[in-house]
Amino acid sequence: MRAIVITCLLVMPLYVLAQDNIIGFWQGKMKSTAGNYIFTLRIKPDYAENAKQLSAVAMHNRNGVNEVIELIGTLYSDNSVYFREKGDLQKRVDDGSGFSCLQFLLKFNRGEPELDGHWQAYRDFKRYRKGRLLLQRHLAKA
Predict the structure, then answer these.
(1) Are 27 and 38 in contact (CB under 8 A)?
(2) Label partner for 18 (CA 20 to 30 A): which of 64, 76, 77, 131?
């Protein structure tokens, strides 16, 4: 029992440190077969659900059209982050609007955090378009 408590006490600060590093404004490039785009992602904790739940808003300008996507996500203890579009995914597929998913790994490049990952835009649960994302965190200036 003592070993479990000690392990939890050691792992908990690592999770809190990772969560502190992921909260904020991220910007970078998305590369896909349709082109390269500037991609922004604003991540914040979603305390309404639970401590591990994240809320995010993604935006990219694809062919002159701004696309805004509201996401919910989870940060895991291995520094991987998974986001999916808010709402009922089955209903979005039935309506023909589809949905987006993003998967990242929180990495550090020269001491600076970056999100390295992939984006998928699903038309249904089998067909999707995909892209590659590399985002850097930008700190707000006072």
Answers:
(1) yes
(2) 131
Tell whether pTM > 0.85. no
Strands, E, within 1-142: which ranges?
A: 24-32, 35-45, 53-62, 65-75, 80-85, 99-109, 112-122, 128-138
Per-residue tokens: 45:
């904790």
CA-based nearest residue to 33, from 134, 128, 100, 135: 128
Q: Which two tokens stand for residue 24?
A: 């904020």
| Residue pair 39/67 in contact by the 8 Å Cβ criterion | no
DSSP state at residue 64? T
pLDDT, tens digit, 9 for 90 and up, residues 77-123 = 999 999 999 988 888 888 888 888 999 999 999 989 999 999 988 88
Quote the CA–CA distance of 124 and 116 in Å, as a whole number: 25
